[in-house]
Structures are given as C-alpha cells and as structure tokens.
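Supplementary material to the annual report.
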Amino acid sequence: MKPITQHLPSFVCAVAANHIATPTLFRSYPVPRTAVNCQIWQAARATTAAPTFFKRIQIGRENAEVDYIDGALGCNNPVQQVLEEAQLTHQSGRVDCILSVGTGQPQTVGLPEPDHFQRLLPLDAVKMLKQLATNSERAAEEFEKRFRHAPGIYFRLNVEQGMQGITLEEWKKLGDVTAHTNQYLQKERVSQEVDHLVNVLAKTSASSGVAIAELSMQPTS
Amino acid sequence: MLGRLRMSTDDALQEYTQLARFVFEEKKWKFQDGLFKATKLEEAIKKIVKKYGGGSDTEDMLDRRDDSLCKRWAIYHF
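Predicted assembly:
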C-alpha cells in the first residue's frame, strides 16, 4: 500500500469540557470562519481524551486555554459534521459518496459503566453523558434514513458481531479484532456492498451525485 | 494518521498496534483523571508525527502544503 500523496482534508472532533453540546473540529484545511488551530499531537490528544481513560487537554493561548475532551460524547457519528464542512467549503458542490466506518462498539467509548465508576464521577455528570450519547445515536439514525432515497451514496461499514466485549485498552485482543473484521467482510451482503463502494470510489467519470445542500438539511423526525 | 499524516493503511495499522501496547500496557496506580497516562499517549503520538509528518513533532494540524485537492473529506475516530 502506498502512502497518500495528496492532501486529504481531514478533521477530528473533540468537545470543550464546559460546552459539550457542540463539537469542536480540528481541521487540516482552512475554513472561512474562526477555527481552532493547534499542533497535530494536541488534536490527537483532544479527540482521544475519553473520560475515565485519559485526562483532558488544554489547548489555546496562554492564560486563555480551553479544556477539551473526547468528541465521541458530543458527536458519536459525525456524519452531520462532514456534510456541514462540505457545505462550508463547497457550497454548490455535489456529493458522490459518503462512507461511514464504525468501530463495532454500540456504546460511546469512555462512557462509564454505572456500577464501576459512579463513585468516581458526579452522578449528574454520568446522567448527562448518557443522555448525550443516546441523543447522538438517535440523530445518526435519523440522518441515515434520509439516504434511503439516495441509493449508492451512503455506505456504512460496521463490524456487528464480536466487538462488544472488546474495550479500547485491550491491546492484547487486536488479533480478535482482526478475526471479527475478516469474518464481517466475508459476509455475502457486506462483500457486495464493498464491491459497490469500490466501483463508486474508483469511478473516474463525473457522476450526477446529490447536491450538498439537499443532504445538509436538518434531520426530520 | 491516514488524513493529516498521509500514512498508508499498513503503516497506520502497524503504528497503532505498537501505540496501543505502549499506552495501555500499564495502568496508573491511582485513579486520577483517567486510568492511563496521558503523557505516554502524548509521547507515542509525537513519535508518529515526527516520523511521518516531515521531521518535527510540532507540525500544525492545518496542512499548508499546496497540493490540497479539497474534494474528499476524511474524519477519524479512535
């Protein structure tokens, strides 16, 4: 496999600890609005600062730093953010393909199990985090509904079986992760979806796609 | 890793498995702001940034190289 030779605009999400309802994006590309810039390692630390795993990180000007924690709490499935970014930089563009790759985890990473951690976090904080995770899951589901009307645009790959018992820190189980992933990819339905996806991504001719504006509407309930 | 650092998937997998072991092998004795050492994670991330990001571990998230295509987005999540 060759390294990527062109700039692939990327972002990672984190949330400011005192403002967890809205995610902060750390981008590799410029946008026409105020944006946080920081070093790569800081962005990586912010997006991985899952409560109960790692301490939060302070980013920003001296004496005016902001505390950031893992963005999974505010945007478990950041597909909505991807579309907002597309609209921000390419207002009149069209979308050919959206690929969402899940981690195989039904729960938010770092969300404490009540029995285990309740004594270590304030109860209302635990409740709030759970509420957020549930809301973001629901939002993602609503969002996905919209793509049923645009077949061949939205793809979702997520290892459905076997990953539930494997938590973030279990590095010894990475072999199991590989095995579960291979098994998932061999499923007839998944294999067909991957073939379809490869065709869409490798296509060189211009496709009609879907207007970004059409996809960026607020989720309907 | 794949986006900002433009790594190959093989390199990303190899670096991740090494990082996971280095960071999660040891739990902190005392639960304080998390079970694992953020300093170890920082050290591991900086090593990867230095190796793949142009020789310095202080590279900015904003990619100023001028070959930006800006046609595709990628977002990653640990």
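Strands of chain A lie at 10-16, 19-27, 57-59, 66-70, 94-95, 98-101, 154-157, 210-211.
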